[in-house]
Amino acid sequence: MKWPRPNNMMLQVAIRFISLIIFAFSIYLFLAGHNNPGGGFIGGLMTASSLLVLYLAFDMKTIKDVIRLNFTVFIGIGLLFAVGTGIISMLFGYQFLKHFFDTFQLPIFGEVELTTALLFDLGVYLVVVGAALTIILNIAEDEK
Amino acid sequence: MSIFHAMILAPLIYALFVPFFYRSFNRRLHTGWFVIAVPLILFIYLLQYIPKVLKGNTLYETVSWIPSLGIDFTVAIDGFSLLFGLLITGMGALVVLYSIYYLSKEKEEALHNFYVYLLLFMGAMLGVVFSDHLLVLYVFWELTSIASFLLIAYWYERKASRKGALKALLITVTGGFFMLAGIILLAMMGDSYSIRELIAQKSVLMTHPYFIPSMVLLLIGAFTKSAQFPFSIWLPDAMEAPTPVSAYLHSATMVKAGIYLVARFSPLFGGTGLWFWLVSVVGLITLLYGSWTAIKQTDLKALLAYSTVSQLGLVMSLLGVGSLAFYYEEGPLFTIFATALFAAIFHLFNHSVFKGSLFMVVGIIDLGTGTRDIRRISGLLQLMPVTFTVAVISGFSMAGLPPFGGFLSKEMFFQSMVDVSDLQEFGLGQWGVLFPVFAWIASVFTFVYSMILIFKTFTGKFQPQKLNRPVHEMPFGMLVSPVLLAFLVIAVFFFPNILSKWILQPSLYSIIPAAKQTRIGDIQIWHGLTPAFLMTVGVILVGFTLYKMLDKWLRIYRVFPQKLTLNGLYDWSLSTYEAQSRKITNRYMTGSLRHYLLYILSFLILTVTIALIRNGRVQLAMENFHAIGVLDVVIFIGIVLAALTILITNNRITAILALSVVGYLVVMLFVIFRAPDLALTQMVVETVTTVLFLLCFYHLPKLGKRMEPLKFKWTNGIIAVLTGFLVTIFTILAYNHKRFMPITSFFENSYELAGGKNIVNTILVDFRGFDTMLEISVLVIAGLGVYSLIRLKLRERDTDEV
Amino acid sequence: MNNLVVLPIVIPLLTGMLLILFKQYIQLQRTASFLALVGTTLVHCLLLFEIKQSGVQAVQMGSWPAPFGITLATDMFSALLLLTSNVVALICLLFAFHSLSAEIEETYFYSLFLFLITGVNGSFITGDLFNLYVFFEVLLIASYVLVSIGGKKKQLREAMKYVVINVLSSSLFLFAIAYLYSITGTLNLAHLSVRVAQTGQDALITAVSLLLLIVLSIKAGLFLFFWLPGSYSAPPTVIAAVFAALLTKVGIYGIIRMFSLIFYHETHVTHLFIGILAALTMILGGLGASGYGDIKKILTYNVVIGAGFILAGLAAFSPEALNGSIFYLIHDMISKALVFLIGGIVIHLTGTTKLEDMSGLIRTHPALGWMFFITILALAGIPPLSGFIGKVLVTEGTFVSGYYWLGAIGLLASIMILYSLLKIFMNAFWGETILSVEEEKGTTKGLMLPVALLTTLTIVIGIFAQVLVPYVDLATYSLLNPEVYIEAVFSGNPIP
Description:
The complex is a heterotrimer of chains A (144), B (802) and C (496).
Chain A lengths: L8 H24 L7 H18 L2 H7 L4 H21 L9 E6 L3 E6 H26 L3
Antiparallel strand pairs in A: 1-2
Helix pairs in contact in A: 1-2, 2-5, 4-5
Chain B lengths: L2 H23 L6 H4 L1 H11 L11 E8 L4 E7 L1 H24 L8 H20 L3 H19 L6 H32 L4 H6 L1 H4 L5 H15 L8 H4 L5 H10 L3 H14 L3 H23 L4 H23 L2 H4 L2 H39 L15 H15 L5 H17 L12 H25 L17 H19 L1 H16 L19 H18 L1 H4 L2 H4 L6 H23 L4 H22 L15 H19 L3 H21 L3 H22 L12 H26 L14 H5 L4 H9 L1 H23 L11
Antiparallel strand pairs in B: 1-2
Helix pairs in contact in B: 1-5, 3-4, 4-5, 4-12, 4-17, 4-21, 4-22, 5-6, 6-7, 7-10, 10-13, 12-17, 13-15, 14-15, 14-20, 15-17, 15-19, 15-20, 17-18, 17-19, 17-21, 17-22, 18-20, 18-21, 19-20, 19-21, 19-23, 20-23, 21-22, 27-31, 28-29, 29-30, 33-34
Chain C lengths: L6 H14 L5 H29 L2 E4 L10 E4 L1 H24 L2 H24 L3 H20 L4 H32 L4 H11 L3 H18 L7 H6 L3 H26 L7 H22 L3 H22 L2 H32 L10 H4 L1 H14 L6 H15 L3 H26 L18 H16 L1 H16 L1 H9 L6
Antiparallel strand pairs in C: 1-2
Helix pairs in contact in C: 1-2, 1-4, 2-3, 2-4, 3-4, 3-10, 3-13, 3-18, 3-19, 4-5, 5-6, 5-10, 6-8, 7-20, 8-10, 10-12, 10-13, 11-12, 11-17, 12-13, 12-16, 12-17, 13-15, 13-16, 13-18, 13-19, 15-17, 15-18, 16-17, 16-18, 18-19
């Protein structure tokens, strides 16, 4: 398939930079989700687009060599997180998907609220990243 | 589980073992020898019940089947069902014996199937006659149809067999469904499925509005099964079955199931005008039609088939006339009509005997000469003396001649028809005279075809050149059954009252107990010069003349149109049904997605519009709405323009971009309405999908000029606009129709409840985390889908994949 | 609270996910998916007994009290469907082992299959309208992939229509949910029932219910079945069989649930309408089945007739009729799967779908032929097989409710079923044998066991219907008495 394949150094440098920013922003969105706009779904999609930008700017193969990640595994792990939090609460005798939260006094961070919902959201995040990239990369690679 | 239940189920269970016998022993011993034990033992077993039901009493045995639904397998033995039981098992034994010689164990490759079906039938038929519970009766009733279907198509390679089988099944099962509807109505009226309990409630049921419908529905079931006009057409085609089957199912037993049912229900429905008219008139028409049509047949089995149709009609008409006995209840008229009932039972018995033996005779001729065509067979007298003797005895009995059993019941038949003609009630009036007239004419025809059957085949000059093989008498074993039946035919004439006392009278009493007080059923051979006797004499004289002059008048049949027959009608309606079904279905199932969407949306528009109009005045109150600002209007216009661009453009990239413009403008709306999470999500999703679209774009062909006719576009446009309009109206209505506080207020405490300030997020991961879990699964499945679609492209092998 | 209720969803979902990670290990995939379905089947048996003992089982997801969280609730009706559908799926899985090519098996077939079951089970279990929508999406998206798996031209063409029509219906579903939420302010089915009963089912609510009916009708193949014959004849046999047995049933379940739990106040409008649609469906389906000489077409139109017949029982809305519908629903799942599997084998053996090109298979495959014959009788409702009791009860129910025409059309449809299927039997199995075993295009190796199992089920269910009656009675009871369901969902908590 004809990826738009510009051999433009400037663009590639810029894209690297942009990608990093988007990536960082996506992580923020994910973490902030519980109290501010954001969350696993948006975070995941953002992360996916940050990687997508890289694929757009560079050759498919180059990126593949650099980022040796199998995104299908992301999906599996993510789903395990999401379903796992549900099952664990069930194993403790609560209803499926019962979440718990509490505030903890941590060094450096100070008072932090930790919640099992974040684990669930992490699952969502991973799945979204994995699935979005699987879909897009598969379509992109289909050169037949 | 009583012995009696076991007896009914025994043939069915035994059938399971037949293939085993066949596989293990058939080379040495004909499988039939293993089977014959079943009817024989059952016959002997049933004999012991004769004294037990002699006084018209009934024995019951009940086993629960589905007690919660009130379905019990209740076996009821009374004189009438016992008569049938004896016929079924007795004829069954003789037919199996006969079949052992008829079906060669070497030539037939699926002999076990034959006996499996036969046993299946035997069990089913016993079930029909001994069941008191109507649903159970229906179960067995359908089972007989199926067994008959399988037996007719025993030689399934033959097209005619298949066609005949299908016809028989379609007609009888359809009739069965009518009957089922009737049964359900009956059960609804009387709150019981038990025949006897229903009969006990007769006086109440008679005034029920379901009384007539259930009667008609039941009769349709009975008429189809007993091959009454115009449902009779399946019976001649059923002759494709091996001859033992014709002798057994299609003359002696199964076709009498309808008769059985009518007789069984006579106590309930009898005495009403409609029942009388329906049963007797249909019977008479069938009688006349069958006998008239039988004469022109050239195939011996077809002749016998039509003769069976006509004889069944005779019995039916007797049941119709006899049903009046339930109206009079006592007195001379009661005696007259109860005698008609007796005649029906008597003739039913006689018919089974002589017709069974005649079928066997025809089977012997068929096997001996290789043909059943009357035009090719003649002068078999010297070659097959025993067969001839049997044919004469049974044939004369059928024609109603003395000294054979058929004479007696035929006389009684005439007498009943004469009696009914005197009656003025039930709107009979002058019409009553038609009963004896019809009966007499039909009997003349019966006489003629009986003569054809006997004399065309056995007398005259033997013409071996017309046959393909040397002809000889059949082996002893094959003759046993017909000879025994022929003896019975004579015995019945000379000792009718033995039969009457032990079998026929108990049968009558179980249908109409009041008959016990009378002397009905004392059969006299000589009554004096009664009208009935004179009619018989007339039949013989006219019949003989007609037979002699057959060549002269047979061409009358040609006057009747050849195409316009009931069979033609059946074939025509079946093929038309099929062709029209295809045509109708093809008309709307075009395979075009556009059409399907149009149907669905039009249906939606129609339904919802009507539903909303029912709502009454459509109030589009806007006061609850958010004030519309300038920005809203701009965004709205933008969305409309972008959407129109998608429709109009010929360039895919433009279309994709326009689509994403719509998406981003919606993002703007979310921003305006202060829904940052939605806006953010929508934006990212929009971006990713646009990229995805652009990627796919490379795979798609150029968007050419759309060559749809203008008319298409107009229809599409109208439907689209209407749908949009309707959805808008509906939305406004629903918005203005808030009846309750929404549950959302609960979520506003999200921080205390779930430890999160962002309500949207807490809903997503906590309150409704379950939805989210599944939504990401959807995403995963979509991912897998894309992967599998792209990776797995099987070669075009449309058929060799399971 | 009873977490058992979650397991029918979690077990297949989790197994399906794990199997994504073991793409290449076919044997493992087979074993795991088999065990997963055995597991769910056992769970359903347990559920069945618990419900019989102690009534409707409900659990609140995340322990948020109803109606705020998502409630899962199984009454006897859903438990019966769960059990039947999983047994059928399990047997079809056995068929898949021997019938699918390794390529398909390696392309996440088992994961997709399990996700499909997740969607089906979830739809039967959920007590929340939006969650129902989500489960529909799960099963639909899995079905989109399964319809097109293999990527043959015909499949893609039919998949396209299937997807577009279902996307349309999904969006209509969302509209309906939104309207209903706007009016009642809740999504919980039990709560909806309470609130609709409180405010009275006025014309607008009825209009929403009809919109919902249209959505579910598309899924159920009730009247709006145009997509069905094409897309059910495209995929490999085992997938078509599962679709025929389960997918339309989910739509039917939805209709029955909605119109017994929530929208039961205006039966003279809604249920009559359903009855009319059911009648039209039976007639059109019957015509379609009778008109063609192509096995796949005949079978797919038979699916349509079945949907009409089951919903005729709902239309009558009496205890007898609902009993009949449930009996028939159970029967239909089993025998539709069966008839599709046998049809698939016949096509496999002869290499054609055209009846005129096949003949005399009974000589070489007597067992297959007779099992098919039994299936035909079962489908036509001929006693004493599985279809009989359902047919009698539905017919009786329609008569009791005064819908004589509906009962009559139901019986007429039985004749059409009989005729259309006998055509297959007489053409494919009877007649001169034209193919010797060596000339056949495929074998029946390994395929007969699942077919035999299903055939046994149709016979056993017919003859030993008594065993089922108490359960079916309970199911009908909970359908006709919404308060039973509502009580279990709110379990004594105040209803806002």
